[in-house]
Amino acid sequence: MSQVSELCATRRAAALLTATLLIALSSCKTPTRREPAYAAPDEAMVAQIAAANATLGVNDVLEIRVYQESDLTGIFRVSAEGTIDYPFCGRVKAALLTSSALADQLTRCLENGYLKNPQVTVFLKEYNSKKIFVFGEVQKPGTFPFEDKMSIVQAITLAGGFGKLAAKNSVIVTRLVDGEERKFKVPVEGIAEGRDKNFALQPGDIVYIPESFL
């Protein structure tokens, strides 16, 4: 074999060895860990879901307003029987209705011989029948009463604040939407510092604060 042939054979062998080593090294790499896919929180969508699904319950406190009718405007608490006592209408069922459904019911009652075209609005002041759940890396995990327009920062504050190992920008909120479970990944630290939009909770939400492994 000539020197030229030997040199070519040596180069081919070296190239083959290099390729083999690269394949072997690539097969030893640790698989990349993929996080589960979570929906990005959309405040408009969240607010719409909350308004559509929020129903009244026992001990909830309502503010009922009737336009230009101060005698019919006031604060009412839903009784243990799920009703309120309202002027002219007597005992009215409120439990399991939405605020707008109750307003429609009161409107029909007042139209029946009392007022012409009454404009009734029902506001939920206290959500005493509803709860949220906070657990994971917080000081005092547990169940807490839901408040109107409650934010995720408020919920974590009720739970005593973050624990030392909390992954503050990876908080997971689980909620039922049209009977299906959905999860939202919420950057709570970013919200608290004003870098991200607020995230409003709704009754029944489960807030989980995972550990940070950094």
Please, could you describe this protein's structure?
- The chain has helices at residues 3-27, 43-53, 99-111, 152-158, 188-192; strands at 61-66, 74-77, 83-86, 90-93, 120-136, 142-146, 171-177, 180-186, 206-209.
- By secondary structure, the protein is an alpha+beta fold.
- The chain folds into 2 domains: 55-126, wza like fold (2-Layer Sandwich); 131-209, Outer membrane lipoprotein wza fold like.
- The strands form 2 sheets. Strands 1, 2, 5, 6, 7, 8 and 9 form a 7-stranded mixed sheet that branches.
- The longest helix has 25 residues, at 3-27.
Distance between the termini: 60 Å
- CATH architecture term of the largest domain: Roll
The SSE order reads HHEEEEHEEHEEHE
- Our count of helices gives 5
Give the averaged pLDDT, no decimals.
80
Superfamily (CATH H level) name of the largest domain: Outer membrane lipoprotein wza domain like
| Assigned CATH class of the largest domain | Alpha Beta
Give the topology.
Blueprint: H1 3-27, H2 43-53, E1 61-66, E2 74-77, E3 83-86, E4 90-93, H3 99-111, E5 120-136, E6 142-146, H4 152-158, E7 171-177, E8 180-186, H5 188-192, E9 206-209
Parallel strand pairs: 5-9
Antiparallel strand pairs: 1-2, 1-5, 3-4, 5-6, 7-8, 7-9
